[in-house]
Amino acid sequence: MEDFTALPDLASRAFGGGVVHANDEFFAAAGHLVLPSAPGHAPKTFDHKGQVYDGWETRRRRSPGHDFAVVRLGAPGVIHGVDIDTAFFTGNFPPFASLDAVALPGYPGPEELAEAAWSEVLPRAELKGDSSNVFPIGDTRRFTHVRLNIFPDGGVARLRVHGEVVPDPDLLPKVFDVAAAEHGGRVVDCSNMFYGHPQRMLMPGLALNMGDGWETSRRRDDANDWVLVQLAAPARLRFADLDTSHFKGNAPGWAGLTGITAEGDQVELLPRTALRPDTPHRFPLLKGPEVTHARLDIYPDGGMARLRLHGRADRAHLWARMRQCLEP
Questions:
Q1: Are 179 and 226 in contact (CB under 8 A)?
Q2: What start and end residues bound the annotated signal peptide (predicted)?
C-alpha cells in the first residue's frame, strides 16, 4: 500500500486548515482535529465538563443520528489517504467513522456546506481506540472540504488528510514560491535527515525553533549533504531564500543551488556561497531555463530552517493539473 502518510496533511492548521462547523463539541473543541502537533494527554486533569482531552469529543448521544465535523482544507488537493487518530480516547472513542468530501469555490459557510453535493470518499469503517486509524482514499478528484462523520458519538484526537496539493492558478501571482508545500512543492530525495525531515523547510511561516527544519548528522567524510525538491510547476527561478534561523553552532558553512530541466540537464542557479548562522539570506539566482526540480547542496552538513524558491511558473502546467482532477 502507498505510504500516503509521508504526503502533506492538507487539513493541517499549519496550512490554514480549520473546522468550519461541528454539530456537537460539548466535551472538547473540534478545532483540535487539525492541530499540527501530536496529541497529548494529562490523566486526571479535569475542568467543569470532565477530563480534559486534546481532541474533539461530543456528548453521549441519546437520540438517533451521528455526530460530524466539517473541515476546510488549508491546501486543497487530491486526497490519498486519511488518519483518524483516536489517541488517548479509550472508553469514549467512536466505533465507526466515514468521510465525505466536496470542492467549492470561495469561502462557504455552514449553510452553503450543508446544501452542497458531498461525495463519500471513505465508507463507514471500523475504528480502534487510542490508535492511528489509517485508510487509503481512491478518489482522484480535487477537494476543498471534508466532513468527518463519527457513529454515533465520541472522541477523535486528530484528523490527518494526506494528499497532493493542487492550487487554483487563478489565486496565484505571476511570481510565487514554487517550492512551497502549500503550492505543491515537495521533497523527493535527500542525502540525510537524521535530525529533521527536509519537507519542513517548505512549510509556511517562519521556523519556530531548531526542530522545525532540516538537519543532518555530522559528516565525517569529504562529501556534502543535499536535498532535491520537485517544484509545484516548471518555473524560471529568480530568487532563493536560504534561512538558517535557530541554527547557530550547526548551520552549513556554504550552500549552492542547481536546477534540473525536464530533459534532465543541470543548470547552476547559485554557485557555492557562504552562509551565516541564524540568518535569513536572500540571493538573486543566475538566469536560466525553465526547471522542474531544484537541488540544494549544503557544505558540508548542518541545518536549514526554510527554503524558498521564487519564480515564474508555467501556467499551462498548473491549469492542466487542475483540469486533470476535476473528474473522477
A1: no
A2: none
Cell of 167: 492550487
Amino acid at 96: F
* Tens-level pLDDT at each residue, the chain (328 residues): 458 999 999 999 999 999 999 999 999 999 999 999 999 988 888 888 878 888 999 999 999 999 999 999 999 999 999 999 999 999 999 999 999 999 999 999 999 999 999 999 999 999 999 999 999 999 999 999 999 999 999 999 999 999 999 999 999 999 999 999 999 999 999 999 999 999 999 999 999 999 999 999 999 999 999 999 999 999 999 999 999 999 999 999 999 999 999 999 999 999 999 999 999 999 999 999 999 999 999 999 999 999 999 999 999 999 999 999 987 6
Is the Cβ–Cβ distance between 220 and 237 less than 8 Å? no
Say how many C-beta atoms besides its own lie within 10 A of residue 235's C-beta.
25
Domain extent listing, the chain:
4-165, 171-315
Identical topology for domains 4-165 and 171-315: yes
Pick the CATH number of 171-315 from 2.60.120.260, 1.20.140.10, 3.40.50.300, 3.20.20.70: 2.60.120.260
**What residues does 230 pair with on adjacent strands?**
186, 293
